[in-house]
UniProtKB/TrEMBL annotation:
Protein origin, superkingdom: Bacteria
UniProt cross-references to InterPro entries, sorted A to Z: ADH-like_N, ADH_Zn_typ-1, ER, GroES-like_sf, NAD(P)-bd_dom_sf, Quin_OxRdtase/zeta-crystal_CS, YIM1/Zinc_Alcohol_DH_Fams
Keyword match Oxidoreductase: yes
Protein name according to UniProt: Zinc-type alcohol dehydrogenase-like protein
Record-linked Pfam families: ADH_N (PF08240), ADH_zinc_N_2 (PF13602)
Organism listed in the record: Romeriopsis navalis LEGE 11480
Residue span(s) of domain Enoyl reductase (ER): 16-335
Keywords: Metal-binding, Oxidoreductase, Zinc
GO molecular function: oxidoreductase activity; zinc ion binding
Length: 339
């Protein structure tokens, strides 16, 4: 089967940073589905895992944690899927990724692809949707059925992949007032298209930016970019007893005194936690992907795909990785079809 992988961790400009490979097709067993991959998307996690480091792999490392495709075989313990089912998923960071024609993935973290989206449009969503959903509704404990209607959330990095779907979930399901951050005309327009009520500039002091749009402080903050850089502004902008969720690890110690004084909380979101630790509630990712499929098919949510590159091969993946590393992409970049 065609695959794209690496043996060395090299700068993306190096032709061997990602290589076209021919690998043996795997066999499904246990809870695994064997999926014929139709489309994939690239996330910052791909570039971070691939980033230069002094290590060499004896077996090819296959990246990719977003895919849509068709089930072609199932393991003996599979109960929720059959061959021929169209599916979508983000996968498991501890296993070979989706940059292959065929991939094994545990059925408990796989959902049924939305019927109203083709494979490419749907491939933009799984990882970012799981991340945003878990951050908002599980980590921040926001009611997804309007229980917290009217409360405010600041989403730092609104035009990125996670931000694009987080704005929609916070606005359309939770009915929050959504303040997103962006700094360029194109990213501001994208956040507004996704449903943000206000857009503020993350290159300025965010606490002051929030006050400019009429909010002294906010109930929730979702940080999707540089926890270290935004930490002082976040602790200033969060309300007493509010909650901050971040998906970005910190490099330096975080001063917790302001949170202590406000009895405010900090929580983390890492969407691979359930699969990495084989938690008892792994199936929640299947359930949320199926719920989001229904929301897309009913017109509540829309794809965040903003560019589709064809075909899937090493050269195109290197190009997309380079664009992600520049840090100014809008929405998601998808790759579809094997050449």
């Amino acid at each position: 089967m065609k695959s794209v992988g690496l043996y060395q961790y090299l700068p993306i400009s190096h032709p061997n940073s990602l290589q076209d490979l021919e690998l043996a097709q795997p066999t499904a067993s246990g809870h695994d589905l064997l999926v014929e991959v139709k489309a994939i998307s690239v996330n910052p996690v791909d570039t971070k895992v691939r980033a230069p480091k002094n290590r060499t792999e004896t077996m090819p490392k296959i990246l990719g944690w977003d895919a849509t495709g068709v089930v072609v075989a199932i393991g003996e313990k599979v109960t929720a899927f059959h061959p021929g089912d169209p599916v979508w998923y983000a996968g498991d960071i501890t296993r070979p990724g989706s940059n292959s024609e065929f991939q094994l993935v545990d059925e408990r973290i796989v959902g049924r692809k939305p019927q109203n989206l083709d494979f490419a449009a749907a491939a933009a969503l799984p990882l970012t949707t799981i991340t945003a959903w878990e951050a908002l509704f599980e980590r921040l404990k926001i009611g997804r059925n309007s229980e917290d209607m009217g409360k405010s959330i600041l989403i730092i990095g609104g035009a990125g992949g996670v931000g694009s779907i987080a704005i929609q979930l916070a606005k359309k399901l939770a009915k929050l007032t959504v303040i997103a951050t962006a700094s360029r005309p194109a990213t501001i327009a994208w956040c507004q298209k996704m449903g943000a009520d206000c857009v503020v500039n993350h290159h300025q002091n965010l606490a002051r930016e929030v006050t400019k749009v009429g909010y002294e402080q906010v109930d929730y903050i979702l940080c999707l970019n540089s926890t270290d850089h935004h930490w002082p502004a976040m602790t200033e902008a969060i309300k007493p007893q509010g909650i901050i969720c971040t998906i970005v690890g910190n490099r330096d110690p975080l001063d917790m005194n302001e949170l202590k004084n406000k009895s405010a909380g900090l929580v983390w979101e890492f969407m691979f936690t359930r699969s990495k630790y084989q938690t008892a509630d792994m199936v929640k990712q299947r359930e949320l992907l199926n719920e989001v499929s229904q929301l897309i098919d009913s017109g509540v949510l829309v794809t965040t795909s903003n560019d589709i590159v064809r075909p899937i091969n090493a050269a195109n993946l290197r190009s997309v990785h380079a664009r992600i590393e520049q840090g100014n992409t809008i929405g998601k970049i998808v790759l579809a079809d094997w050449n």
